[in-house]
Write a structure and sequence with these properties.
By secondary structure, the protein is α/β, with parallel strands linked by helices. Helix content is about 25%, strand content about 15%. It has 13 helices and 21 strands. Strand 9 and strand 10 form a beta hairpin. Helix 1 packs across helix 7, helix 3 packs parallel to helix 9 and helix 5 runs parallel beside helix 7.
């Protein structure tokens, strides 16, 4: 048996024709995939953003209530490592730069082997002392500049000098390596390929041939890296969305290369294929770009997911059951005939794929220090912290590393040794003071009926419905062994 994960970053399902036939994105291979697999309508994120989602991919349990961005913990179960230890060869191919930073430092080493491709976003890749030439731009991304423009912004413009033709692009190189792995190992058994590209994550830098698919008349400033509140003109918004669609079309072409190999070697008979993303991306909907700084509307939270399982052979079908990223690990382990660890909260989706059998009634999702959200696939509830409690939040970790730096001495001076949680395998953990990074309290608590109001334009004021969602939220938090202060921060009473 074999399995392939094709993993994108920041893929908004409303820009995919199988999910939104009215969109004008050119993506024939996603349509082809929908005909060959099961498509999930209620796939939701768990922990946002990038590395917290990948921790869920490995561990099959939520991250965001206990810890922000960081490495795998010593007590974490890692799906690729479990496979490796049980005779299944696992290989990671990725251009996702966060794997090579402090906060992702131990994920790729859980695989039997791995290959990295450099140059995405502000990857600190090429050594050039002189400031690069940067054209006039609509927006300089927030928090990307520093003394002498030393942030991701500066490095990205250096990297672009070395990425000019389609063959140079990291996405192309990733899929070159993925195709090479499949060609080399197609006749072998017991392997997992995790093929991952950072695209269509911002900046929406894409070869000209894909931009040519979307003709436009625009003579404004450079704009392919949006972030924060919407402050741009309609023309600038349309231009940036065009950049995104072009990048999605490139992702579609890359996907087609994998589907071609599946067809050529009749791999559908014995190879599971999972195609999905860590989260979506706001493209000026709700007056915002990107993620994290706004409530997690469904443009970010409700993700595209396609699964082909050769055991059920369900193709061209849709499923409405509520599923999440935490389900990927147990599904893959079960597929290879391995026991699912006790601490994994996710569920094996075998019967959901076969006949839409539900695996949960509610799903939690969110980001550390942001709203704590819950959905049943029909209603979403976004619980904001009490203003006076917003900073009452702590990291519980034995790996105190941020995205691209160590915890500071000042932070570590707050650390105390805390008793184990149910999932830390009797390990005590460091409890380290955190802070409110997202200020979501300014948006307040929100409730939406996403069946009647799929674009989440009309918040509800329904006390009875809110009380039901509050009770469900408390129950799900208890199942996750959430820290006591999380309830206090949200103004909730434990049952």
């Amino acid at each position: 048996m074999k399995a392939i994960i094709v993993f994108y970053d920041s893929l908004n399902r409303r820009y995919l024709p199988p999910y939104n036939p009215q969109c004008d994105t050119i993506a024939p291979n996603f349509c082809r995939l929908a005909e060959k697999s099961t498509m999930f309508d209620n796939s939701y994120v768990g922990s946002m953003p990038c590395m917290p989602a990948r921790r869920e991919l490995h561990t099959g349990r939520y991250n965001f209530l206990h810890r922000e961005w960081g490495p795998l913990e010593p007590f974490d179960d890692s799906m690729p490592e479990i496979l490796k230890e049980n005779g299944v060869y696992t290989h990671l191919i990725s251009d996702h730069l966060h794997y090579w930073e402090d906060g992702g430092a131990d994920y790729h080493n859980r695989y039997s082997s791995w290959e990295c491709v450099r140059g995405q976003e502000g990857d600190h890749w090429k050594g050039e002392v002189e400031r690069p030439q940067i054209p006039p731009v609509v927006m300089v991304p927030q928090k990307q500049t520093g003394v002498g423009e030393s942030g991701l912004w500066r490095y990205d413009w250096i990297n672009r000098k070395y990425i000019t033709e389609k063959k140079d692009f990291p996405q192309t190189k990733c899929f070159d390596l993925g195709c090479e792995f499949i060609e080399k190992n197609k006749d072998a058994d017991n392997w997992l390929l995790h093929l991952e590209t950072f695209d269509p994550h911002e900046p929406f830098y894409v070869p000209q041939e894909y931009l040519d698919k979307y003709p436009e008349e625009y003579d404004g400033k450079h704009f392919d890296w949006p972030r924060g509140p919407l402050e741009q003109s309609d023309g600038e918004v349309a231009h940036c969305r065009r950049q995104y669609k072009a990048l999605v079309s490139m992702c579609d072409d890359s996907l087609g290369r994998i589907l071609d190999l599946m067809d050529r070697y009749d791999m559908w008979k014995d190879t599971m294929l999972i195609v999905g993303t860590d989260h979506g991306f706001m493209l000026a909907e709700h007056e915002y770009w990107g993620k994290n700084q706004m409530p997690y509307y469904n443009e970010n939270a409700n993700t595209p997911l396609f699964i082909w399982d050769p055991r059920s052979k369900a193709a061209g079908e849709r499923r409405s059951s509520l599923v999440q990223m935490i389900d990927w690990a147990p599904t893959i382990l079960s597929y290879f005939g391995l026991e699912i660890p006790r601490d994994m909260q996710g569920k094996d989706l075998k019967e959901t794929i076969r006949n839409d059998e539900p695996v949960r009634e509610y799903g939690l999702y969110g980001v550390f220090s942001g709203h704590v959200n819950i959905t049943d696939g029909k209603v979403t509830y976004m619980r904001a912290p009490l203003p006076e409690k917003a900073d009452e939040i702590y990291n519980y970790t034995l790996m105190p590393l941020h995205m691209n730096k160590r915890f500071t001495v000042k932070e570590m001076q707050t650390a105390i040794l805390e008793e184990p949680f149910s999932f830390t395998k009797n390990c005590k953990v460091l409890k380290i003071k955190g802070k409110d990074k997202y200020k979501v309290g300014r948006f307040g608590t929100r409730l939406y009926d996403v069946e009647k109001d799929p674009k989440q334009l009309h918040p509800l004021a329904d006390k009875e419905l809110e009380e039901r969602m509050i009770q469900a939220l408390v129950r799900e938090m208890e199942k996750n062994d959430a820290p006591a202060e999380q309830y206090e921060r949200l103004g909730l009473k434990r049952e």
